[in-house]
Structures are given as C-alpha cells and as structure tokens.
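Moderator note: this is an archived Q&A kept for reference. The question asked for a predicted structure of one protein chain; the sequence and the answer are reproduced below.
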Amino acid sequence: MLLWESYRNVADWATTPRSRRTGDTFGAGAAERRTSRIEAEPGMRPELYTALQVIRDLLAHPRKVDPRTVALACRQISAWAEERGKPVTQFHFAAAAGLCLAPDGRQAYVVGCLARELARWDA
C-alpha cells in the first residue's frame, strides 16, 4: 500500500501545474504520516528507503522538490521492483518518472518497452 500511495502522490504532483502546488496539495500532516509509515516498514532496503524519503519530501514541500530528483527516486523504486520480479510496480514507477520528466524521450521509450512486456498478446 505504501508504494501504491507513493506512486499516486508522484502522479498527482507531476500532473498538477507548478503554480497550483501548495503546502495543502496533499493535506495537513501528510509528510508526517508518510514518515511514520516508512519507519514502520521492517527491513527496508536503503535504496528504497531513500527513494521513499524523496517522495515524502514532495508531500512536505511540493513546490521545492526538483522533478529530476523525484524522477530518480521513481527510477530507483522501479529498479527495486524489477529485482524482485514485480513488473507492474516496475512499470508504474517508470511511468511516474516519465511524468516528472515529460520531455525526456528516453524515459518514454523505457516505459513503452515495459508496457509491451506487460501486454497480454494472447488475450
């Protein structure tokens, strides 16, 4: 659930115009609640912890977070998911990285390749 909420937060943030991103974008106390949820996860790998902290920072300061930093965090989560054989999570965080860096054709290509791999051609 933590990853799904983090994905949704990034997608909402990335699709909200910068001028409309405020401290209230995610509601009062969102960053504090996320910190508690992250800290409550046992045995979290350092790269996943760091990436989730970046997304937590996005909740606290939506205007101050650099889109490249958020995209990198999403790529780290995507790589983590790939290592664990979780292709849907891998795809969603790769797509979230693409939302952060919309003009980046390389990220769009990666997302397209992942979508192709997830496609059910026999259905």
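Archived answer notes: The two ends are 28 Å apart (CA to CA).
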